Amino acid sequence: MRTLARLYECDRYPVRFSYEFAVACYSLINLASRMFSSMIDDRCVITANSRNVSVDLTSESVILDTLSGMYFGVDRVGKRIWDLLSEPRSVRDVYETLLREYEVDADRCRSDLYRFLDELNAEGLVDVDYRTSEQ
């Protein structure tokens, strides 16, 4: 059994958090993010979560969530979106970039982008700032 314990000072009493406790907390946070995933709109600012590791292959990327140990494959458009999310970007900015770079119907682009971002958010692969961007 793998245990990672960190010692935190809480007033005068040290508190140890085990690996299992951290995974349970992560699961609760992931569940809460799924509840709010439908709240993503054009003004949200999204960034790829820094704990993830991604590997670019020829026409796709593989993303590893180092906390859960799960990996996810994305196609070339998903790879482009993932690359855009390496820096904080509004959903609107990502949408407009995709419209410029690909021949795609605007409504289809928007619905596919929202679905993809909801999936990334539900898996905890991105950080979403629900405050409105400055645009």
What is this entry, summarized?
The protein has 135 residues and is an alpha+beta fold. 41% of the residues lie in helices and 25% in strands.
Q: Any key phrases for this structure?
A:
135 residues, alpha+beta, Outer Surface Protein A, domain 3, 3-stranded antiparallel sheet, 4 helices, 8 strands, 41% helix, disordered N terminus
CATH topology of the domain at 39-129: Outer Surface Protein A, domain 3
Helix/sheet category = alpha+beta
Helix content: 40-55%
Strand content: 25-35%
Write the H/E string, N to C. Answer: EEHEEEEHEHHE
The CATH class of the domain at 39-129 is Alpha Beta
Mean pLDDT: 78
Determine Rg (CA atoms, Å). Answer: 17 Å
How would you sum up the global shape? Answer: globular
Name the CATH architecture of the domain at 39-129: Alpha-Beta Complex
Distance between the termini: 49 Å
Unreliable sequence segments: 1-13
Your description of this structure?
This protein is an alpha+beta fold and 135 residues long. The chain has a domain of 91 residues: Outer Surface Protein A, domain 3. 41% of the residues lie in helices and 25% in strands. The strands form 3 sheets. Strands 7-3-8 form a 3-stranded antiparallel β-sheet. It has a 3-stranded antiparallel β-sheet with strand order 4-5-6. Strand 5 and strand 6 form a beta hairpin. Helix 3 crosses helix 4. The longest helix has 18 residues. The relative contact order is 0.19. The N terminus is likely disordered.
